[in-house]
């Protein structure tokens, strides 16, 4: 694999956790294998590996963008990742407040609902990182 892939896999594991990445890797098929490589190299090996902003800030941006665009299916995963990126509950609330003002209250409300549920699961020890 490429250097960018290796760097991406290391960052992906650091942010999402080994269990999550192992599940994704073990579930790869011939159909989605190239897509997983694209995500690892592009999202994790380029964007998340950049030293331009901190992992905490990147986490907040990612959550805000997911909510603003209505991509709710990945919010729980990125809420769980805040335990590794250093983004606090207050940081997440601030990000979603920006979403409410700039992208719409319903999207921010749905994102906060997912965040509350995910934090509750995390506090009960059911992280499924």
TrEMBL record:
Start and end residues of each Carboxymuconolactone decarboxylase-like domain: 35-117
Protein name per its UniProtKB record: 4-carboxymuconolactone decarboxylase
InterPro entries: 4CMD/NDH-1_regulator, AhpD-like, CMD-like, Decarb_PcaC
Species in which this protein is naturally found: Roseibium album
One GO MF term: peroxiredoxin activity
Source superkingdom: Bacteria
Residues annotated as transmembrane: none
């Amino acid at each position: 694999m490429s250097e960018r892939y290796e760097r991406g896999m290391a960052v992906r594991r650091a942010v999402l956790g080994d269990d999550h990445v192992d599940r994704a890797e073990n579930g790869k098929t011939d159909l989605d294998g190239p897509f997983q490589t694209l995500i690892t190299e592009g999202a994790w090996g380029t964007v998340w590996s950049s030293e331009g902003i901190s992992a905490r800030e990147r986490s907040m941006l990612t959550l805000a963008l997911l909510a603003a665009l209505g991509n709710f299916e990945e919010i729980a995963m990125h809420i769980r990742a805040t335990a590794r990126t250093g983004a606090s509950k207050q940081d997440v609330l601030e990000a979603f407040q920006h979403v409410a003002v700039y992208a719409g209250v319903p999207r921010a409300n749905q994102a906060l609902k997912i965040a509350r549920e995910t934090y509750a699961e995390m506090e009960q020890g059911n992280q499924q990182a």
